[in-house]
Amino acid sequence: MILLKDILYKVTIESVVGSTSVAINNLEFDSRKVSLNDVFVAIKGTVSDGHQFIKKAADNGALAIICEILPNTIVNGITYVQVADSHEAMAIMAANYYNNPSEELKLVGITGTNGKTTVSTLLYQLFKKAGMEAGLLSTVKIMVGNTEYKATHTTPDSLTINNYLREMVDAGVEFCFMEVSSHGIHQKRTEGLNFCGGVFTNLSHDHLDYHKNFAEYRDVKKSFFDELSGKAFALVNVDDKNGVVMLQNTKAKKQTYALKTYADFKAQILESQFTGQLLKIKNQELWVKLIGGFNAYNLLAIFGTAKLLGLKELEILQIMSTLESVDGRFQYLISEKQITAIVDYAHTPDALKNVLETINGIRTGNEEVITVVGCGGDRDAQKRPVMGNIAALLSTKVIFTSDNPRSENPEKIIQQIEAGVPPEHYKKTISITNRKEAIKAACQMAQENDIILIAGKGHETYQEINGERFDFDDFKIASQLLKILNK
Ligand SMILES: CC(=O)N[C@H]1[C@@H](OP(=O)(O)OP(=O)(O)OC[C@H]2O[C@@H](n3ccc(=O)[nH]c3=O)[C@H](O)[C@@H]2O)O[C@H](CO)[C@@H](O)[C@@H]1O[C@H](C)C(=O)N[C@@H](C)C(=O)N[C@H](CCC(=O)O)C(=O)O
Ligand SMILES: Nc1ncnc2c1ncn2[C@@H]1O[C@H](COP(=O)(O)OP(=O)(O)OP(=O)(O)O)[C@@H](O)[C@H]1O
Ligand SMILES: N[C@H](CCC[C@H](N)C(=O)O)C(=O)O
Ligand SMILES: [Mg+2]
To answer: Which residues bind ATP (predicted)?
Structure first.
């Protein structure tokens, strides 16, 4: 039996109407999911305000309402708890409800604009290969040991997080690696969790639709490190100028990694090829299968984290050389006619630039680099012309197309991307709204040894148009088309 007052432990309460010594059933933040004796948390969202659904929750049988503003009508028999911040209250209550699972395993949060999925997934793989029980909360999937669940968010809501963490603890998981998105931090989805470490990958342009400006976006990320405990570690990339910003006010043990500057964990890239790269870490040379300078950073972050979590250096390096790239991250195939098709989740300017620079760095001759790219609808519109510019400057041919248009007009999105193309590069770009047709055109254009980059959707297996999701898989489509076209 769980009492309301037990899950309110550590919540900042402003006032209470009714008794908190009542036995509760579930905790919910969506009135539509409330049933008899549940607790409903009213949250001010980005689209609607949960306070408007308090009556609906009561009608559905809620026993207690947690809210920032008490409703005008108080129903007898329901307990109302007024809190300073519903998001925060829900996260703390969720942790209490599931008996604080984050304190029973080693939880590491990975944040930054790019690289979160890569770093957290590789850490999960590394720890499993080292014989540990591991868990993963990522954009691509959720893993509780070997059991896979579908992910809906990069960082799920606090109830979902704590639910999975409890399942992990019960399954004997010792280490959990989770992505911490800026939306997640801002909406306090990770509040009340006990992190034993935080990792910062990098910070560049994204989500300027949600955050007021870059400074706010940076400060939201920083607040994650501000809240780490003195027992935790904060491992940051100091080649990124915002790395030191993340460490400014943290109580955690400060640790750094870098390729270019002085740091606790350093690496050198000795050689780069299409099939991998040769790295030097701690005077040990190792061949890794992941390519690109950005992956050297990701691998160094993994090395540092694993070391800080107590694994032996040599074992870490041995396992690192066996790690495979994550689904939809520089996933490539070479066709019969020696055309290389690469699918990559680059959906930010920095990621697109890195991936194209990596491709250009390993080109051997005069191959064409044909980029197929778009930008998501209902997301940061400011990044569109910037990505258009990068695609045009770093490719020999570009086909602008749709990503997930969501509720927006796909042609308008493409026009905004095209606005960033310098006039002297107009000739090399075309636009084809239908993504499958765009990939087909790229496959038709490609000749022996050419490289096709299909960017933005990576592992996604759908395309969202007008609120509807259709089956769509960049990698499958490209491989089928290259076969059909006898390329
Ligand atoms: C913009 C955003 O982050 N939205 C998230 C937010 O929803 P919201 O604020 O829009 O909620 P709302 O619809 O306004 O509703 C407010 C409240 O009323 C409640 N409600 C609503 C209707 C009703 O009938 N009854 C009711 O009780 C809702 O349950 C909610 O508690 O809170 C919801 C619950 O946690 C999230 O599912 C939802 O994610 C949406 C689906 C989303 O697309 N989020 C993306 C942008 C996101 O979070 N992305 C980041 C990764 C980004 C990255 O790093 O690249 C992520 O971590 O996934
Ligand atoms: N360390 C890095 N620095 C810059 N770019 C990177 C880095 N790691 C990966 N990328 C690029 O960013 C893309 C997305 O990588 P990944 O999925 O690991 O990032 P993410 O932070 O999880 O993204 P999201 O915010 O969508 O969850 C990759 O496909 C690659 O192009
Ligand atoms: N986590 C990111 C993913 C973007 C992926 C891209 N394919 C798009 O749909 O914009 C977001 O939700 O903003
Ligand atoms: Mg991710």
So the answer is: 112-118
pLDDT of residue 213: 82
Number of domains in the chain: 3
**Of 43, 69, 96, which residue is a domain's last?**
96
Q: Which residue has the tokens 């778009």?
A: 374
| β-pair type (23-24, 429-431) | unpaired
Helices 349-362 and 293-308: crossing angle, nearest 10°? 110
Q: Which of 47, 44, 72, 46 has the alpha carbon at shortest distance from 58?
A: 72
Q: What type of residue sits at position 127?
A: F
Quick one: tokens of 41? 């948390």
pLDDT in tens, 231-288: 999 999 999 999 999 999 999 999 999 999 999 999 999 998 888 999 999 999 999 9
Give all strands (DSSP E) within 120-210, no chain letters. Answer: 134-137, 141-144, 147-150, 175-179, 195-200
| Beta-bridge partner residues of 288 | 277
Query: What lines the ligand 1 site, CB under 6 Å?
Result: 29-32, 43, 45-48, 50, 53, 153-155, 157, 181, 183-184
DSSP 77: T
Give the max Cα distance, the chain: 78
Closest ligand 3 atom to 460 CA: 7
Cβ atoms within 10 Å of 366's Cβ, excluding its own: 8
Q: Is residue 326 a part of any domain in this protein?
A: no
Q: Please report whether residue 325 resides in a domain.
A: no
pTM of the full predicted structure? 0.94
Lowest mean pLDDT among 18-22, 125-129, 191-195, 290-294: 290-294
Are residues 261 and 183 part of one domain? Answer: yes
Same-domain pairing of 60 and 152: no
Q: Which residues line ligand 3 (CB under 6 A)?
A: 154, 347, 376, 379, 403-404, 456-457, 460
Least confident of 199-208, 237-246, 447-456: 199-208
Q: Is the pLDDT assigned to residue 88 strictly greater than 90?
A: yes
Q: Judge whether 388 and 421 are in contact, CB under 8 Å.
A: yes
Residue 262: inside a domain, yes or no?
Answer: yes
Mark which of 41, 67, 96 sits at the end of a domain. Answer: 96
Q: What is the CATH number for 150?
A: 3.40.1190.10
Within-domain flag for 25: yes
- The pLDDT assigned to 215 comes to 87
Does 181 share its domain with 204? Answer: yes
Domain holding 42, by residue range, is 2-96
Average pLDDT rounded to a whole number, residues 61-70: 98
Quote the pLDDT of residue 354. Answer: 94
User: Does the structure's ipTM exceed the value 0.90?
Assistant: yes
Confidence of residue 204 (pLDDT cuts 50, 70, 90): confident
